[in-house]
């Protein structure tokens, strides 16, 4: 069962470190209901998001450039910078996943979660994160939300807490510009500089 809380005021700080062309555009006062916004975003199934990611664990802290391309259930997520500056690319669909790191043999598994856990020790729910990064809950499991102007300010799902610091206007849709994902001792910070729908 989901739980939705509407906040009438949350003092958001609009970060100025976005990479979006012509500067970051904060989301305007909401003109759509949460249900309308959620439906609109859920229909966006082919997209590319680029920016930066920071990953913090008790033993390490890394940052990288991020490129996430989603085409229905197929995805390709590229990180450039961590892992000895070599980066990593994880790609696949609902049936399988492949992890490629320069200088190593590609690894394959049934899911991206299994690959990241085995090779990097990160317990990251990639299949759910494809929804979280767009500012909507993942289908199929319970969640709690806090809304601000009919957009997510905070989402709790699958043991993860996702906080949304700001939004960008992309193709007439409000999409996250900065968000953090936290669970136990793992924290990810995503700064999205550019959103693009794939035609």
TrEMBL record:
SUPFAM superfamilies: Prokaryotic lipoproteins and lipoprotein localization factors. Gene3D superfamilies: Lipoprotein localisation LolA/LolB/LppX (2.50.20.10). Keywords: Cell outer membrane, Chaperone, Lipoprotein, Membrane, Palmitate, Protein transport, Signal, Transport. Pfam families: LolB. One of its GO terms (cellular component) is cell outer membrane. It is a lipid-anchor. It comes from the Bacteria. Its main location: membrane. InterPro entries: LolA/LolB/LppX, OM_lipoprot_LolB. It is found in: Cell outer membrane. Residues 1-18 form the signal peptide. Monomer. HAMAP family: LolB (MF_00233). This is Outer-membrane lipoprotein LolB. It comes from Neptunomonas qingdaonensis.
């Amino acid at each position: 069962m989901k739980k939705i809380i509407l906040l009438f005021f949350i003092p958001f700080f609009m970060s100025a470190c976005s990479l979006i062309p012509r500067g970051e555009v904060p989301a305007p006062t909401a003109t759509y209901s949460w249900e309308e916004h959620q439906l609109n975003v859920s229909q966006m199934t082919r997209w590319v998001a680029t920016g930066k990611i920071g990953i913090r664990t008790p033993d390490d802290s890394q940052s990288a450039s991020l490129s996430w391309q989603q085409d229905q259930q197929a995805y390709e997520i590229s990180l450039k910078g961590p892992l000895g500056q070599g980066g990593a690319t994880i790609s696949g669909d609902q049936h399988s996943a492949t992890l490629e790191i320069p200088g190593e043999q590609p690894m394959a598994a049934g899911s991206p979660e299994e690959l990241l856990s085995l090779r990097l020790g990160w317990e990251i729910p990639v299949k759910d994160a494809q929804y979280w990064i767009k500012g909507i809950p993942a289908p199929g499991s319970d969640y709690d939300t806090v809304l601000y102007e009919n957009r997510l300010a905070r989402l709790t799902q699958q043991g993860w807490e996702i906080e949304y610091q700001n939004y960008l206007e992309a193709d007439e849709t409000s999409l996250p510009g900065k968000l953090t994902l936290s669970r136990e001792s793992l924290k990810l910070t995503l700064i999205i500089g550019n959103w693009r729908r794939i035609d």
